[in-house]
Each structure stands twice: as C-alpha cells, then as structure tokens.
Amino acid sequence: AVTLTGTGLTPVKALPVAGIAFGTVVGGHSSANKTVTVYNYGSAAVSLSEGVSGPNAGDFVPVGGTCGATLAGGGAHCDYLLKFTPSISGAESATLGVSAAGDADSPHNVSLTGTGS
After folding, report:
1. Strand 76-84 and strand 60-65: pairing?
2. pLDDT in tens, 27-39
3. What span, in angstroms and rounded, lies between the C-alpha atoms of 22 and 55?
4. Domain-located, residue 13
5. Lesser CB count within 10 Å: N end or C end of the chain?
6. Is residue 64 pLDDT above 60, yes or no?
7. In a domain, 24, yes or no
8. Domain assignment of residue 63, yes or no
9. CATH code for the domain in which residue 80 is found
10. Domain count of the fold of the chain
C-alpha cells in the first residue's frame, strides 16, 4: 500500500490580486474602464457570479466584459470591465467579489479604490 497525499488548489482566481486603483476622477465624470480577469485553472466548467459590495459600492460599476454565467475549464479566462464614477469628494472604496459554484474559496475579492474631486 502506498499513501498518497496532496493539497487541492482553488481552480478560480481573480486578478489583479493587489486590487485596482482608479485614481482621482472629477465629480460628474467617469474613469476609464479597468479590467479584472478571472481564470479557471480547473478542468471543469464553473458557474460564475459577481457582485460589488462595500461603503461606496454604487460608484464602482461593472460595465461589460467577456464573463458570462459559465466559464470553461482548462485555463479559460474572461474579463469584467468596471468604471468608477465618484459621488463624493474624497477617498472611496468597494470590493468586487467573484464567486464560482462549488469553489469553497469563493468569493474571490478584488479591492477597488478611487478618489472623487
């Protein structure tokens, strides 16, 4: 008998892990779109969902991208596009959470920051 051990890896990752800084944006205007890329390193397709939460969630909005309800396995990836439209003067923050069905490490969070002027 041979004993085998190992540690499973989370198949889904959302990048950039360090978060996204939108910089300073003048009130009444929107930033350029920024990209969050989601990778599925597992072999099976996963169902995806996303949501923005936090103190200024309404100012950081997904505006498109290539992610749909399902992401294929085997290294497939997709993108969420987000924009920042400040509603106040000063620092703002929120978190984009990407969840994959069956992934115990979900949601995969990306911090979002920006400053309204």
Report:
1. antiparallel
2. 999 999 999 999 9
3. 16
4. no
5. N
6. yes
7. yes
8. yes
9. 2.60.40.10
10. 1
Q: Using 50, 70 and 90 to split pLDDT, how confident is the model at 85?
A: very high
Pairing of strands 90-100, 108-116: antiparallel
Whose tokens are 């889904």? That residue is: 12
The secondary structure of 47-114 as a DSSP string is: EEEEEEESTTGGGEEEEEES--SEE-SSSEEEEEEEEE--SSSEEEEEEEEEEETT-TTPPEEEEEEE
Segments forming the whole domain that contains residue 91: 18-104+108-116
Cα 38 to chain centroid, rounded? 7
In a domain, 48, yes or no: yes
Q: Amino acid letter at 24?
A: T
- Inform me whether the pLDDT recorded for 100 exceeds 60: yes
